[in-house]
Amino acid sequence: MSGSSPEATTEPGDGAAAPPPDAEQDWAAAKAFYDSLVSKRPRPPKPQHAITVAVSSRALFDLVEERRIYEEQGVEKYVQYQQENENVTLKPGPAFYFVKALEHVNARLCELYPDDEERFDIVLMTNNHAQVGVRLINSINHYGIASATMFTANKDVSYSDTELRVAFDGDAVLFSDESEQIVKEQGLDRFFEHEQLNENKPLAQGPLKGFLEDLGKLQKKFYAKNERLNCPIRTFLVTARSAASSGARVLKTLRSWGLEIDEALFLAGAPKGPILVKIRPHIFFDDQMFHIEGAQKLGTIAAHVPYGIAQKYHKSS
């Protein structure tokens, strides 16, 4: 739910009478009264200012058992089970600690910029039966939570409560799949040659460049208050590229975009799972399923980005 209220509009000739002037004045007065209310809880930011993060109920909470009941016994038994357990708090799901970290960033931003609305707006999305909503609401209130395909980790990993950590792959995630196409179709030697020849030519943007930009904007708000060392957002580039042979173009591309990354890790083809265990990001984005699965096995929450030429090879295999 947002702080704005829906407005009904009519067109001439549609059979509906226009509201009388008194009704419009009443509406304006009611809206002004709502806007003047003081609350200890921060209002949701207006959509035009917010970085909206939509999270499904099955990502936010562990609903594996509930899903099993739905699939094996049907919707009636599922709804009955949820109603009978509506006061039993749901356990955290794969996106839970990511959302908690987003909320910590919001709290810090509200401290430093109390009148500013440029922050995360977390939206819970669900297609559950309405009666199931009570349990979801109870669980949200229990944890104090405001209202891409994510994969649950196979191991329990502790996450930072005071720093949002987001890790990105490079090609086909932050950047386009231009270079990855060359690897897949012409081999590594041609890829190394291509990257060296084009070192000073920025890569085209990928699907998650905008998210890194949004994180960067919020980081700069902390930097402006001399909070760089205490900034509650930290970003990582975790790429299979080699620093020596193909890393320069990546760093120069980020520089040309005016974007910073806190840590750039060039693994030269090594598995990503072990380094992600050290980083402990709340979420890791990658376009290749074998990297997703490797991260998942070692306890990292990973989101698959279905973009680029890797999807063609994944489907064919």
Automatic annotation (TrEMBL):
Spell out the Low complexity composition-biased ranges: 7-17
Against InterPro entries, the record matches this protein to:
5-nucleotidase
Q: Region annotation Disordered: residue ranges?
A: 1-25
Name the Pfam families for this protein: 5-nucleotidase
Protein name, as recorded: Cytosolic 5'-nucleotidase 1B isoform X2
Q: What is the lineage of its organism?
A: Eukaryota, Metazoa, Chordata, Craniata, Vertebrata
